[in-house]
């Protein structure tokens, strides 16, 4: 039996890593230096792509029931509406941002881990790491300090750094955390709001006084985030009300403040996600502006990319070089995320008269266009993320089919099972633990130990959406465990294409 994978940090990233590995039978140890779960809400947005992937694991419904489904983001400038972003433009069964406390997100993940026998080891801190030679290979050695100060030497096969922005692993490995501080100070407050704010909409105010965001938390509560507040004290209700009144033209009263804080924004990332048997993800690898609600989602998706790959390596079903694809695929996503959130923060928080004029005059025109709405919603919802041109994609694909590296869309279709046709959505056919070959059209089913084969046909009145994924001539689409397309091929070539793909990327 392999030694457990050591996961350092039990926030959303670490919990996702533990769940992804444990559900596939990999032993893990999940340590957290704090004494108990967090009680204050940090990240509050769960995006459509994260919900899609959680749905494939049976976890989405539980989380959605605990949050607020926000389908409209209303943007204002200098006391007047600029445009409304409608998340119905998202081509997903989750056409909204789910605003839910990170406390709840962690609880759902922690309960899922516990059902698999994985419990968080609280009050347990990583105090030292080293790489030592074992069996001719450089393997990790970790020193843990547990409750009461007891020390333990652990030699895991792999270590995942998910312990936040001050990661000891990242610092010990001497990995530069490159980037910058945004410079502005921000305030945050969670409180009830009475007045003219629509209770389930996101409200963004951008003016010469600075940025103000009001994020719905349900039950009449909102999170307020604002830039450029000079007061050095922890913000109280009076301060937050003054900020709101100065920047929002809508009449509202703030009351019942439950938490407030000040924070600064850093935008930084590492240049590598793997050093031997040390793997980094989440805030240990990238931190950035909270603009757009992207950070927690990115960390969780880091682990959904890594989990199935590391499992195959541990089980001897793939070479260690497969893990290089984790870095190759996720670093461009992270880099794009940093650039996007930096630009969004700079624009929305700007007090420059020139930039204010451009925002106030151009935004209403651009924001009203359907194409812009679709692209912005897809980017915020992270369904636009893909790995085209990455190391695990075959460049060519069957005529008219979806390109390798892209997220599998979710058209309604019918799947053959037990001699009958059954309605399904395409994403329901993704296997988070294995590859699936989706076949559209007539022809014999390719036999392959590498992928489960399913025969499909369009659902009534959904032929066009089906054809956009599978073409009009019949094709086979190979889908990865994380729901991204690996390759597509004509049905007649499917068996040989899958065999060649498996040999190229997974032969150990």
From TrEMBL:
Domain of life of the organism encoding this protein: Bacteria
A UniProt-annotated Pfam family: Rng_hyd_C
Transmembrane segments: none
FAD-binding domain residues: 4-338
Keyword Repeat found: no
Required cofactor names: FAD
Record's keyword terms, sorted: FAD, Flavoprotein
Protein name: FAD-dependent oxidoreductase
The organism of origin for this protein: Thioclava electrotropha
